[in-house]
Amino acid sequence: MTSADTVVRTKRSLIGRIAERAGGGVVQVALVLIGLFWLMPTAGLLISSLRDPSQVDISGWWKVFSDPSQLTFDAYDKLLSNQLITDSLWTTLAITVPATLLVVIIGALAGYAFAWMDFPGRDWWFLIVVSLLVVPVQVALIPVAKLFGEIGIFQTTTGVVLFHTAFGLPFAIFLLRNFFAEIPRELLEAARLDGAGELRLFFRVVMPLGAPAIASLGIFQFLWVWNDMLVALIFADSGNPPITVALQQQVRQFGNNIDILGPGAFVSMVIPLAVFFAFQRQFVAGVMAGAVK
């Protein structure tokens, strides 16, 4: 063995030892610290929403640890008595839930068709769908607003749902088609030999196998629609707006009214977080499956 080989083996063993040590407790501690740092703004918002507005103006939220008596639920009582905020939460749910379900259902059906059904121009149609991914939302705002005005659904909940559904479908079809295409053909052929039709095959075989990807898509769509402000600001009813627009109106009308903005912003944020953590296991499974495939 030459001296050069000895140096290489020494370097490799040193790198190997560093990698082995990094794969242990050091990385875990670093990830915990990063997670805590990432959650710090959320914790600050929660604590600020529980403090008296006069205290928020003169000191930081961390002062509550030295004076816990600052915590109060008066701001949340005021929030629940604010009809604009409570109505906006129901409006946001009325927009987000249908827009998510429609994208998931239609995207799954179209993804299965593009993956396993033969029809004329299938590849060209899929290419058109993929090309729609690069179309920005801003390009369609004015034409779609004119179209919705002509058919009478401008500034309605239906119009917002249809807009989000239309712009969510290209990504949904692209994602689910690629996932469904990885299902073994033998499994589908065996189900067909047992007499399963296309719909039964889709609901009994493809949907259970595609649950991780479908859950991931549902989370992405829910978060996008819930946190959207641009589309809601243009297409939603100004008298009954979603929560993002309602909070923006509070800023415009009353200035720094932290007693409404703090609790409202936290409630608006905690609902999508709850949805994410509810489907966290399926989301991680879908991401890992996509990474392996």
User: What is the beta-strand fraction?
Assistant: under 5%
> How would you characterize the largest beta sheet?
none
User: SS-based structural class?
Assistant: mainly alpha
Measured as a percent range, the helix fraction is over 70%
Rg on CA atoms, Å: 25 Å
Question: Stretches where pLDDT falls below 50 for ≥5 residues?
Answer: 7-11
- Total helices: the number is 14
Whole-Å distance between the termini?
41 Å
Shape: globular
Q: What report would you give on this structure?
A:
The chain has 293 residues and is mainly α. The chain folds into two domains: 3-65, no CATH class; 75-292, MetI-like (MetI-like fold, Orthogonal Bundle), CATH 1.10.3720. 80% of the residues lie in helices and 0% in strands. It has 14 helices and no strands. It has helices at 3-49, 53-58, 74-80, 83-116, 122-131, 137-151, 157-180, 185-193, 198-209, 211-227, 230-235, 243-254, 258-278, 280-292. It is globular and about 70 Å long. Mean pLDDT is 80; it is low at 7-11.
Secondary-structure blueprint:
Blueprint (H helix, E strand, L loop, with lengths): L2 H47 L3 H6 L15 H7 L2 H34 L5 H10 L5 H15 L5 H24 L4 H9 L4 H12 L1 H17 L2 H6 L7 H12 L3 H21 L1 H13 L1
Helix pairs in contact: 1-13, 3-13, 4-7, 4-10, 4-12, 5-7, 7-10, 8-9, 10-13, 10-14, 12-13
Sum up the structure in keywords.
293 residues, mainly alpha, MetI-like fold, 14 helices, 80% helix
Short description:
This protein is mostly helical and 293 residues long. Helices cover 80% and strands 0% of the residues.
